[in-house]
Amino acid sequence: MPDNTTRLLAFMERVWSSGEVAAVDEFLGPQYTIYSDPGDPWDGQTLSVSGFKERLLASRTPFPDLRFDIDETVSAGDRVALSWTMRGTQLGSMGGRPPSGRSFAVRGMTIYHFADGRIIGHQQVVDRLSVVQQLGLLG
């Protein structure tokens, strides 16, 4: 079985960067908890696999070219931390606002939680205000 870091890097590439919704089944446990992710509409919730897929689609649909470039990984026990740069172009509506056609790049950090080789949750920090500013969605 691949180690947690290898599995997480594959998850980030296939699920978040490539948008392979079906691949979620290969990586997630039966429940996924968002322990802390301020500004995320799902913050504090525990999702089923199908709920996670809905979250993935809702997050990626406005940004079909969404990509996570992994800057660094740190692993300890059943946790793997990533620092990353997320990039995308708003080509779909978001929050009732039409597509801006503008791109953004923002850095963040996420700690993923594992159980039995499956991802079961995360805690994350990201500057969502910077994304909104770069897309010209304020004011």
Ordered list of secondary-structure elements with their pairings:
Elements: H1 4-17, H2 24-27, E1 28-36, E2 46-48, H3 49-60, E3 67-76, E4 79-89, E5 103-115, E6 118-126, H4 128-134
Parallel strand pairs: 1-6
Antiparallel strand pairs: 1-2, 3-4, 4-5, 5-6
What distinguishing features does this structure have?
alpha+beta; single chain; 27% helix; 139 residues; Nuclear Transport Factor 2, Chain: A; 6-stranded mixed β-sheet
Task: Describe it.
The protein is α+β, with helices and mostly antiparallel strands. The protein has one domain (4-134): Nuclear Transport Factor 2, Chain: A. 27% of the residues lie in helices and 40% in strands. It is built from four helices and six strands, in the order ααββαββββα. It has helices spanning 4-17, 24-27, 49-60, 128-134, and strands at 28-36, 46-48, 67-76, 79-89, 103-115, 118-126. A six-stranded mixed beta sheet has the order 2-1-6-5-4-3. The protein is globular and about 45 Å long. The model has no long low-confidence stretch (mean pLDDT 95).
How is this structure best summarized?
This protein is an alpha+beta fold and 139 residues long. It is 27% helix and 40% strand. It is globular, with a radius of gyration of 15 Å.
Q: Which strand order does the major sheet show?
A: 2-1-6-5-4-3
Q: How confident is the prediction overall: mean pLDDT?
A: 95
**How would a crystallographer describe the biggest sheet?**
6 strands, mixed
Assign the CATH architecture: Roll
Radius of gyration using CA atoms only:
15 Å
Determine the strand fraction and express it as a percent band.
35-45%
